[in-house]
Amino acid sequence: MKAVVLFALTSLAAVIITGCFPQPSARNNPFDPGAGNYSGGDKPPTLVLSLDTNASYEEHMFQFDLRGSSDDFTDNSQLQVQIDWQNDGMWDVAWTNGLVHTHSFSTPAAYTVRIQMRDSRTNIATKNVSVTVSALPAQYGDGSDSNITVVSGNTVSVDDIYNLDSVIGVITYRGTNKGLNHGAGTYQPKTGVFIQAKTFIVESGATLTAKKHKTDGGATNEAYGIVWIAARAMFSNAGLLDLNGKGFNGGSMRFSGGFFATGPGNGGSGTPQPTGDHMNTAGGTAGASCGSTGIPCTNAAWDAIFGSGGGGGGNFYDGSDGARGGDGGGAVRIYAVAFDTATGLIQCGGLDGAKGVSYDNSGYIATGCGGGGAGGTIYIESMNARLGTSKMSCAGGIGSNYGDPIIQSDYTTGCGGGAGGGNRSAGGAGYAGGKLGDSTGPGSKGGNGSLGRIHVVGTYTGSTGAPPIE
User: Fold this and answer.
1) pLDDT tens track for 40-83
2) How far apart are the C-alpha atoms of 67 and 129, rounded to whole Å?
3) How many whole angstroms separate alpha carbon 218 and alpha carbon 261?
4) Phi-psi region of 238 (alpha: psi -120 to 50; beta: other; left: phi over 0)
5) How far apart are CA 192 and CA 203, in angstroms?
6) CA angle 2-7-13, nearest 5°?
7) Fold of the 62-133 domain
8) Is 300 helix (H, G, I), strand (E, B) or coil?
9) Which 3-state string (H, E, C) describes 39-63?
């Protein structure tokens, strides 16, 4: 009887063990770290997205950052994602371990981005993200000139890129050493015809420049003297934008013929010394500020962006030119959604005035010194500008000192030319001429050119000493 009872209890125990406590599957085994979580359950990853939508414009490069996501047992580096940018059922990004992805939308609209993340056990988390993309402001252009690169080792004029078929040193959508070929004379920034790129890159060792706005004795060319570019995505400058001396020309005084015009705010030329008069005479007058309140300029809205030329130095005896004034600086205007000149240079300075010269001959001809040209203008408008330290300059040119050390007791000099007036401040006046019999006299220094303007509008980083903000 005891044997029977023991068998029954043993059978009952077997039933209890197998019936009430089923064996764990491989998927939910609480003792197998590779099969499920330690709590006995199994769940998908926690999908965390970081997305900045403050600049939600077409062509803006959105960054979808999923590095904050996690999973109970799968390491973050082993999580995989796939992405459908327009939620159209087509996975544009196939399963990958990368957790940071960038994307831009070319058309303004409301988009739904579908993101899935899976762990090592193929558990999947899904997230739909709404992104509203607005049209870019008109100043950033339409991108019709596509992508442009100025290649290292080359100096290229901006109007050549726009106008010509063949341009050495550039790469455009038309090919290597190919310009945009819009036609001769079509680059006219004053009337709104300029480069409208997607990206514009000036490589390290490359120079982008412009032809001179006004030359001696020549007419002003409104297409010249300015680099004007719109870039819907990026303008990147690792080289040099050189607009030094590309504005209005400097003056050159003649005793018998006056001086060449130097544009709005031009510096006055030094007064010539009449024949036989060896006394001091006044220096050239300072150039007026162009664009300042109360000081009118011809066509101020346009001309004020160019630096005016310095006045020429006076002379002692007719038949010679006074020393030439420095040319004014040109202008740069760039509108770019993203702008980067952290390793490049942008210069729109006025040029220095020429030094005076004396001649040891019977004519006792001596010339005064030229005034410096005024600085031009740099204007940058961007949603995200990355600036370098002291990478942009619109300095005025230096008025020359006498320069030639041959000053003897029977020499005199003409007067120094006045500096070019800038678009912010007046130039300096030239010095008076030297005096006969005074070998230690002041000579005739030209006035220094006035400082130009630098404006950066929008958000910018990387500059010590912030540029002025409009």
Assistant:
1) 457 999 999 999 876 678 777 789 999 999 999 899 999 999 99
2) 16
3) 10
4) alpha
5) 26
6) 125
7) Immunoglobulin-like (2.60.40)
8) helix
9) CCCCCCCECCCECCCCCCECCCCEE
**DSSP per-residue letters across 288-347:** PPSSSTT---TTHHHHTTSPPPPPPPPBSSTTSBPPPPPPPP-EEEEEEEEEE-TT-EEE
H or E element, residue 19:
helix 2-20
The confidence score (pLDDT) of residue 195 equals 97
pLDDT at 232 over 90: no
Instruction: Give the neighbor-by-neighbor strand order of the sheet with 345-347.
Output: 155-157, 207-209, 240-242, 345-347, 392-393
Q: Can you give the pTM of this predicted structure?
A: 0.72
Residue 78 CA: distances (Å) to CA of 65, 73, 115:
15, 10, 16
Residues 387-414 have a mean pLDDT of 63
Which range (58-62, 235-239, 288-292, 419-423) has the least confidence?
288-292
CA distance 307 to 350: 7
Classified as helix, coil or strand, 79 is: coil
Distance of alpha carbon 326 from alpha carbon 337, whole angstroms: 35
Tally of CA atoms within 13 A in the half-sphere of 174 that contains its CB: 16
Domain boundaries, the chain: 1-42, 62-133, 138-470
Task: Output the six-digit token pair for 436.
Answer: 């006969």
List the structure tokens of 252.
């050159």
Whats the size of the chain, residue-wise? Answer: 470
pLDDT of residue 262 exceeding 60: no
User: What's the half-sphere exposure (Cβ side, CA atoms, 13 Å) at 439?
Assistant: 6
Coil, helix or strand at residue 386 = strand
d(CA 238, CA 413): 45
pLDDT-derived band at 2 (thresholds 50, 70, 90) equals: very low
Q: Rounded to an integer, what distance in angstroms lies between the CA atom of residue 291 and that of residue 309?
A: 15
Do strands 453-461 and 377-386 pair parallel, antiparallel, or not at all (unpaired)? parallel
Q: What is the pLDDT of residues 307-359, one digit of tens each?
A: 777 777 766 554 456 677 888 888 899 999 889 988 899 998 888 887 766 55
**Total Cβ atoms within 10 A of residue 413:** 34
